Amino acid sequence: MNFFAITLLMISIANIPTCFCEDDKQYTNCNDNAFDCGNNVTNLKYPFWGGNRAQYCRVSADPNTELTCEENVPKITINNVKYRIFEWENTKQKFTVARDDYWSGICAVSVSDSHTNSTFDNTQFQRYGDVSSKITLLYNCDTNLPSMFYSATCGNTKVVYTFVDPGSVLLSCTPTVIVEIPIMETQAARIATPTLNDINQALQDGFELKWTGNYGECQRCVDSGGVCGNDEKSGFKCFCKDGHYTTTCDSQNFPSSSMYIISLSHTPIYVSFYNYCKL
After folding, report:
1. What is the domain count for the chain?
2. Model confidence, pTM
3. CA-to-CA distance for 60 and 54, rounded, in angstroms?
4. pLDDT, tens digit, for every residue of 120-164?
5. Tens of pLDDT, residues 245-260
6. I want to staple 58 with a disulfide (CB 3.0 to 4.6 A). Which of 49, 103, 153, 262 is the partner?
7. Is 9 a domain residue?
8. Is the peptide bond before 175 cis (omega within 30 degrees of 0)?
């Protein structure tokens, strides 16, 4: 009788699904699917999503972290302004960007286009190094320009550009549109009397942004063998091979398990199968 019971037990165990060692789907997706675009920007992961990276792979509930790849150019939209990404430095969580609409120069943008200032209020992206250098463009205002204000003609549109805060001087005209665009501090320092080419080059060189979120939280997850993401409800999650946890893959007390009931001779036997696949 005991031999018969043991035989039944072995047959039952052999027919239990063998899915225990499959890695968690969210872990696999966020770990394997990095964002790559072009030759210069590759392997972007947390806090970003986009392309083949799902939304749960990003930092929780931040609409400014979606990446797109357009003609092999990686781009990100922050506060409704699209930027080209030149490089991403993971150790410092900073990258270099340039406004996409002004990439071809200030004369490439029509005054009838929708203009938006490059502001980063209420986002986790901020100017790197807390620098304030910027170019200010004033459309249809070129009458009696004060010192440090320069004029360019773009078709039928007059564009004034300056490094000076327009609010600090008294203008004799009222611009129809004012656009402020950050630039590198080194670019602003080296230009004494800026030409239109100087301005266009400064806009192409872009400026640096830093992601100011809690990357230390993510790093602890990565160090424990997990990948970072979120569940869109409670916030940050550490996706591990055997499931997701609130902090790290080592934060759980016991590995996940599945309980099966096997009946032998009318007596139920409870068998627990623990998921040790991550070890």
Report:
1. 2
2. 0.79
3. 12
4. 988 999 999 778 899 999 988 877 888 889 988 888 888 999 988
5. 999 998 754 444 444 4
6. 49
7. yes
8. no
Strand partners, 230: 236
Q: In angstroms, rounded to a whole number, what is the distance separating the alpha carbons of residues 219 and 54?
A: 20
Domain enclosing residue 155, as ranges: 106-212
Is residue 111 one of the residues assigned to a domain? yes
- Lowest mean pLDDT of 194-203, 234-243, 246-255, 267-276, name the range: 267-276
Q: Which of these three, 174, 189, 212, is where a domain ends?
A: 212
How much is the CA Rg of the chain, to the nearest whole Å?
28
**Is residue 8 a part of any domain in this protein?**
yes
d(CA 96, CA 220): 26
Please indicate, yes or no, if residue 192 is contained in any of the structural domains.
yes
Distance of CA 32 to the CA centre of its chain: 17
Give the Cα separation of 97 and 67 in Å (integer).
13
CB 69 within 8 A of CB 38: yes
Could you give the CA distance from residue 73 to residue 77 in angstroms, rounded to a whole number?
13
| Token pair in block for residue 145 | 């320009």
Given 186, 212, 238, the domain boundary residue is 212
- Taking alpha carbons only, the member of 235, 234, 241 closest to residue 256 is 241
- Tokens 């225990």, located at residue: 20
Do 110 and 204 reside in the same domain of the chain? Answer: yes
